[in-house]
Write a structure and sequence with these properties.
The longest helix has 21 residues. The chain contains eleven helices and no strands. The termini are far apart. The model has no long low-confidence stretch (mean pLDDT 96). Helix 1 runs parallel beside helix 3, helix 8 packs across helix 10 and helix 10 packs antiparallel against helix 11. It is mostly helical and 192 residues long. The chain is globular and about 40 Å long. Helix content is 70%, strand content 0%.
Length: 192
Amino acid sequence: MYDFEKYENLVRERLSAYRFHHSMCVAKKARELAVKHGLNADKAYLAGILHDITKEMPKDEQIRIIEQYDRKLTPVERGNHRVFHQMSGAVYVKYILGIDDEEIVNGIRYHTTGHENMTEFEMLIYLADFTSEDRDYPDVEIMREKTEKSFLSGMLYSLKYTIREVVRQERLLHPDTLSCYNWVLGRITEDD
């Protein structure tokens, strides 16, 4: 269905060895989570390969393609370059690579911030990025355990971790992250 070798080679050419390794680890984790949760494993693997395709692109070039193909960045987004690659990556995959699958595009688009009303596939890519085997931040094992139990449990834990880190570092918090946190917490509360 997908020419994985083609996309792996493309990512290998565009990214450092470190970032390529990370992308392949995310692809592997995305496939594992897809199989476990009954989602499309090939699609998850491809989104994992491509999720950071523009991560090492110069920031001004990322802004240019976002604003050329998608929309103007908000002041909060302009002040938070760490979220550029999820937006530029989605644009690159859709308009330059011609992958018109909205699940793949949106999985890439929201893999850093999340957003309200995430689909299972979007949560899968977000969590695969957070819990891939190359990750070694504090609490990663807890994050993996929570993700194995349920996507919502993994999302809640990861969002709390992210929000604490962003506040500790005095960085701008993207509104999508806050709305995602409120949405996830509401979903978990509904299930109790």
